[in-house]
Amino acid sequence: MIVASLSLIAVGAADLVRQFFPAQRRWIGYAMLALLTIVLGAGVDGGVAVFVAISVAALWLLTMPADGTGRGGFWPVAALAVLCSSAIAAFAPRIGAGYFADLFISSGAFEGVGVDLALLVVGVGVFLLESSNVIVRTALRSEDAPPREATQPAATAAAAPTLKGGRLIGPLERILVFALTLAGAYTLLAAVLAAKGIVRFPEISRDTDTGGRAEYFLVGSLVSWVIALACAALVWWASGITPV
User: Fold this and answer.
1) Where exactly are the transmembrane stretches of this chain (predicted)?
2) What's the CA gap between 17 and 33, in Å, rounded?
């Protein structure tokens, strides 16, 4: 399981570096990330998992451009999913392993939760922030969703607000869907998903006959929700807890 945990942390953190570090200094962020991954792996007896995680993050950056224009499409996503699933299936979670694991257990913050599972939850959380945005952009590119402004005549587009805030709303929404799914709060989860549609309805209702804006919203939202639900299912599987 530690391979899946460290890989998700490395991939998610690498995308955050790519997004928020200036291009000229991005290599510094990547170097710091590699060093932190090595330190974290050493602290939990990660061993080979550290180098697997760094390699996976490097391949992810090469095959999944931040703007979603990668030629590989969803193959890198599928490969990452297979890697994480295989790592969880092949290796049982460890309760204690390494210095950081001992500190985690001695703190007593989460009784009965092993360090591998805790790191998996952290990795999923980091992955849901920016890496999932990259996947959503790839989905929109693959569907040839037209730009938001291009779906309306010039006069209408100038008068109507565009769908803004996706870069911030998307990660917050995925974290919320992930947390509510793990908590089994399905009624509240349904309310949150419905609320998003209600909030966006005035903008979507002004869409033209082409349906470009509605398609943009639906594709982006559905892909985002699927990612969050898949991550919740991965944690459920790793923990051995049967969903209620």
Assistant:
1) 29-62, 74-92, 104-129, 175-196, 216-238
2) 8
**Whether 227 contacts 128, CB under 8 Å:** yes
For residues 207 and 213, the answer to whether their CB atoms sit within 8 Å is: yes
Decide if 203 contacts 160 (C-beta within 8 A): yes
User: What is the C-alpha separation between 114 and 111, in angstroms, rounded?
Assistant: 8
27 and 108, same domain (yes or no) = yes
Q: What is the pLDDT of residues 192-228, one digit of tens each?
A: 888 877 776 666 666 655 556 677 778 888 999 999 9
* Nearby residues of 135 by Cβ (< 8 Å), 6 or more positions away: 64, 74, 77, 223, 227
Range of the domain at 30: 2-125
pTM for this structure?
0.81
pLDDT interval class at 151 (50, 70, 90): very low
